[in-house]
Design brief:
48% of the residues lie in helices and 19% in strands. By secondary structure, the chain is of the alpha+beta class. It has one domain (9-89). Strands 1-2 form a two-stranded antiparallel ribbon. Strand 1 (50-58) and strand 2 form a beta hairpin.
Length: 90
Amino acid sequence: MAKFGGRGTGMCVLFVIIGAILGGLLGELLRSVDMLAGVMPYLVTTYPVFDIAPFTINLYVIQLTLGLSFAPNLMSIIGVVLALVLFRRY
């Protein structure tokens, strides 16, 4: 029987996704700080890993356009690592 309140794979994936999003947002917020102007371009530059171009499926009743792009930056990777450390610790 599955435990719904436990620390399973789903909770780990949620931590990783939230860590990546918060790391990327923190990088964008810190981009405008003058003291970090020398290092921030390296931390917020995105590196495309894969990109699936958008394609359209016409079902005559509804038209779907789907695509996927994964382009993390170093701040989002730092957020993922921090999220994994926090997940392991708590």
